[in-house]
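If you are new to this repository, start here. Below is one unmodified record pulled from the training split, so you can see the exact layout before writing a loader.
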Amino acid sequence: MSAEINRAELTAFQEGFARLRSEIGKTIVGYHDVVNQVLTAMFAGGHVLLEGVPGLGKTLLVRTISQATHLSFKRIQFTPDLMPADITGTNVFYEEEGGARTFRFQPGPIFAHLVLADEINRATPKTQSAILEAMQEQSVTAGGKTHALPAPFWVLATQNPIEMEGTYPLPEAQIDRFMFKVDVHPQGEEELLGIIDRTTGDDEIAIEPVIGSEEILHMQNTVRQTLVAKFVQRYAARLVLGTHPGHSVAIDSTKQFVRFGVSPRGLQSLILAAKVRALLANRFNVSCQDIRDVAHPALRHRIIRNFEAEAEGVSTDTIVDGLLERITEPAAA
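And here is the target side for that same chain:
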């Protein structure tokens, strides 16, 4: 691929990302890091888990993203009585005009480009597992037949971290399929004033779609083409291995507070998300700083703490902080 094509694709990626972020900013006040992290995961082709107390705008953010894109959108409100077929769809019995009887597949709400899984931890594990194949394989199997989901396909899920009654914590197998876990915290004073101005007056904010599926797929392909030097790959690998208490590169806090470390899927998430950061920084190759910039949202939900960490209130973010501080960059070849 020629340098001119690379430069054109780089510019197109930056412009597409900026258009979408700007349109989202018409509704979402502040949350610059949250929006950047969500869009980074989306253009890297990954799903996102948004965690925060009610009323912070998690659902509004996802709905605004859907309005700013030419993509189909479905919202699934997860409740304890939700069944797997309510998500994936089911075969329905039809009687045609001539009297012939047949079964037809009736697609569920998972058949959309952008799916909001609202309060995903309120559904039972059986229902939560129904979304696993869709998230990983981008397909749904029903009645012995596999049905492909539209491309691009994203699941953006939300959960409330403080209300535990009537909830079912996500199993490790499912939470690992989210590229990013994004923590949504309360806003500051200036942001709250901006929310008052935009939401309590009579001015109607119109969100226009500024990007379509073909452009998004092309941008995802540009991300995949971004280069990663061997020493940067090695640095990312060492960060991941540093989360395993039995490995030689594990730091003291890992050995003391971690039961299980990050999977290879976490390493893939680190690299893909760092590629997006490199493109936004106007570079064709990933740096170790790009890896550090995405380490927290890519790793925090994949580190399984032990009892001592929970008892002492040591968060996974604190463990990631220690990794970034202690593990040094390998020498460039």
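Two things worth knowing about this chain: The chain has two domains: 1-211, 226-333. The longest helix spans residues 3-24.
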